[in-house]
User: What shape does this take?
Amino acid sequence: MVADSLGSLGRTVTFLGDRFVEDARVSLGDRGYLLGEGAFATMRAYRGRCFRAQRHLAQLAETARAFGLVVPDGVAARADEAAARVGVEDARVRVTLSETAFSILAEPLVVPSDAEYTNGVDVVTVSARRIPPACGGAGMKTLSYAPAMLAQREA
Assistant: This one.
């Protein structure tokens, strides 16, 4: 199932539209690119299988409906296939859907060390805030992640 010829480093795998590709391109006119109008789900995969995929994909479908988008059939199987093609035990799989593009990006996941699990990690508090629930979309995973990126830069 998981390729062992790639060693422990693995590789990034991309599925775009209806096939796995080496070079992915999305239209500059796509509303996801232009306006952040789209949805995504990110899943952890263990040995080529996405963990709780149906739960993540249900949230993806809910967000997609808000934009009038439909999640294609067979996404869970494609996500598992992408995870397996990465060639490592632990992978991160992101399914993205916009007006004109459907993609899956899978790559090796850097797992926290035992020491980090035991001792914790340093954190900071930033001034940037999330979009308030009253504005709609607080629980949605949309392509517009500007507040989170500003918080990351500040940190």
DSSP finds five helices and six strands in the chain. The longest strand covers residues 38-46.
